[in-house]
Amino acid sequence: MSEKVDTLVTHAHLFTLQGDGVGYIPDGAVAIQGTRISAVGSTTDLMTRFQPKEMIDASGFAVLPGLIDAHMHTSWAVVRGVAQDVSNWMQAALAPYARHVTPSAALAGTRLNILEALKAGTTTLGDFSKPYPGWAEAFEGAGVRARLTPTINALQTGGMAGLKIGELYPLDPDVGQQAIDTALAFTQEWHGAADGRITTMLGPQGPDMISRDQLLQVKRLADKENLMIHMHVAQGDREINQMLKRFEQRTPEYLKELGYLDDQLLAVHLTEATDEEAALIARSGARMALCSGSIGIIDGIVPPAYAFREAGGLVALGSDQAAGNNCNNIFNEMKLTALFNKIKARDPEVMPAWEVLRMATIEGARAIGLGDQIGSLEAGKQADLILVDLSAPNLTPVLDAPIRTIVPNLVYGGSGHEVKTVLVAGRVLMREGEVLSMHESNICAEAQSEAEKVAQRVAADPIHNNMALLTAMKKGQM
Amino acid sequence: MSEKVDTLVTHAHLFTLQGDGVGYIPDGAVAIQGTRISAVGSTTDLMTRFQPKEMIDASGFAVLPGLIDAHMHTSWAVVRGVAQDVSNWMQAALAPYARHVTPSAALAGTRLNILEALKAGTTTLGDFSKPYPGWAEAFEGAGVRARLTPTINALQTGGMAGLKIGELYPLDPDVGQQAIDTALAFTQEWHGAADGRITTMLGPQGPDMISRDQLLQVKRLADKENLMIHMHVAQGDREINQMLKRFEQRTPEYLKELGYLDDQLLAVHLTEATDEEAALIARSGARMALCSGSIGIIDGIVPPAYAFREAGGLVALGSDQAAGNNCNNIFNEMKLTALFNKIKARDPEVMPAWEVLRMATIEGARAIGLGDQIGSLEAGKQADLILVDLSAPNLTPVLDAPIRTIVPNLVYGGSGHEVKTVLVAGRVLMREGEVLSMHESNICAEAQSEAEKVAQRVAADPIHNNMALLTAMKKGQM
């Protein structure tokens, strides 16, 4: 007597990511009931055991857990491409645009970014933003899984656009308190919403952007509410300079003294952390979000993820933001992470394909505190999975023995465009290349329209004359 | 009275790559007659001047010169994914497969690679291979432009698969002479074929793989026949060790003494060249082919292209081979080149988007000796051009002012899948995503079939038990 299920995905090159490797099952299948996985195994076995309402034939496809993007700023997608190839990126290139991104522009960016990420197989998005109307609803409506962090800082409106490089930002405790209150209210509304698809974290933007007292207040709140803290840590020389000026300590030492280093912390970037500082943070149990593409473009730096993992830490991948990474695509991050770390170590054996695939799936899930729900394909977990077309010329051929080629080709040869079908919590969000839960052309048109309005406001703001890239424009290089 | 032309491409975001920058023309147009460009300019202007048989509306598209891949080994595409994440890549991972790639497998790989490259906007392919039946015909038939280099070496059949790491390869002058004769015969048949679309170079595989006398013989032949020399130079510690053992000189010094350093030389990789050696080679007028992805994976090294260009040298991009880069896609190479060099210099201003776009187009064309024919869109040049869909979510929005976002987004956000239409020598090879000059599914099926046969031969060859990746297979990591 076979058991009734909603969906059976069959005949896949199945990578469950169970165990210590990639958990490959040839001619594999996944049975799904409601939002969860009922079973994984061979197609023959599951065809006998289960009677599905819908059968998805994955012949010629790799089936993997949905990819996890632990750190994004989706609102900046609306200004994709305005800031890169410059020093002092945040102040010299992004800030003049950032101050003109209205809530409606931010929302258009968020929708665009969810669409882009979903099409490239990302099913869990860790977004970081000042809340604005419609932010969480955009993720809820698109059907994706989200880990949302409302930004907490004590910076006055306008941010750092008017400041000289290196000048200490003025901190306003009232601004900080209001951000904390807003974050708490947001979390009370959204943590666990949409049948658990939407969860939240608390997010001091950085230790340099808030007072010591308010940073401690956030930590007490996180402990009380049992929330993780998602914070930029050692994010570039800008932050370290601010920390030394204001607190006379580098960030890792400061956080250690404050009792901030524990397994509730998702530390983002660690751009300027030494290997020793990274190891210190890893040994505390804190987790790392590694944004290879973004930090490569913005700083020309490979963060110490290798040292962090060697010290036993968990690393998740993040795509950061499109004004200074230009794409939000975990295939891109897997490839860049593997390559950048080989280069940093001058060793081709560092960060092989299977390790970065784990960072994008099961290790990433654990790093963001969702390891019991997502990141691998196994019975009881959420049915978040992707089908990747291996018949694309750039993923051909598919060899099984003596060397199986699929994982290295996905990591080094894939682009994300080969993802054709995506399920989140058992629901098909994209089928055979068509996004079902979002209206693609409307979302792109809305982003274009909002972006043009942002650009007009920037053009009318005298501050834009300081932008580093105007020289490149004048020279005909853009 | 308007002039009749075959094709008019209109309403493009046109990047001509004329001049010193990217040569942007808003609402631009290109008129094409036969194989050549008749004019470029504004759509309004060209619509008045020309009466086309066919009009291609490029609204919402970027139009660029076709991309140039200066260095490939297309035959290895058939073993994509069997060799990466290992030390001593060539001997420990590729060689056991390479010796079982038959001529028909090589041809299947070449066709696959041409297809993959064409779909990602590559119009000129610089291939390097031992000639086998159908090699040149594959490029001729696909309609792409090719710069073909028949491999010259004096290595005995079986190559280096049976040697210990570090052991001096035996050189056989008869093998060397035969390779020279074959190369000369190939060049006499193919140089200038297909209305000039197919041209050839002479290719000693590396200075370590042939005697000094025969290397000099190739140089005299190149001078006599007015051909460029395309050679791997300082290609990893393997080569340098061989050079020191055999000739007691590092490669650049050896080549300088031999009179090999001049503007006829396309020096590939320079993996192990110091900045000073790179500058020495650049100042001689020799050109560099930079394979960022491949050398990143194989060696964990960023070759000294920055130093080469600072010394005034011309640099072209190359994708090398799919067993150790895993894809042959110049969008990938542009992105990796920009990012790797920023990281190497720890400077985000190094190799901005526009510079790597020039390496993939006009600078690359000059580097491979075709600067008068391709690499920019201007009257009289060959009509090799690509249309890139800017409406893809990952390339949205398109902003024009104060900062124009298109080039950075193509380089950092594009993947090559956004290329929809490709023309080579005025002929449409791909239209709206459909390849017209090749049968995509047949080519993939043929590559799959040939690859499986190669894998079976490898499995039957005891030498495969030495392959480094077998450990990863056993551990469930692949």
Could you please describe the fold and organization of this structure?
The structure is a homodimer. Chain A has about 475 residues and is of the alpha/beta class. Chain A folds into 2 domains: about 5-65 and about 375-435, Urease, subunit C, domain 1, CATH 2.30.40; about 65-365, Metal-dependent hydrolases (TIM Barrel), CATH 3.20.20.140. Helices cover about 35% and strands about 20% of the residues of chain A. Chain A is built from 17 helices and 18 strands. Chain A has helices spanning about 45-50, 90-100, 105-120, 135-140, 175-190, 210-225, 235-245, 250-255, 275-285, 290-300, 305-310, 330-345, 355-360, 360-365, 405-415, 440-460, 470-475; strands at about 5-15, 25-35, 35-40, 50-55, 60-65, 65-70, 120-130, 145-150, 200, 205, 230-235, 265-270, 285-290, 315, 385-390, 420-425, 425-430, 435. In chain A, the strands form 3 sheets. In chain A, strands 1, 2, 3, 4, 5, 15, 16, 17 and 18 form a 9-stranded mixed β-sheet that branches. In chain A, strands 6, 7, 8, 9 and 10 form a 5-stranded parallel β-sheet that branches. The radius of gyration of chain A is 22 Å and the shape is globular. The mean pLDDT of chain A is about 95. At the A-B interface, helix 3, helix 10, helix 12, helix 15 and helix 16 of A face helix 3, helix 10, helix 12, helix 15 and helix 16 of B.
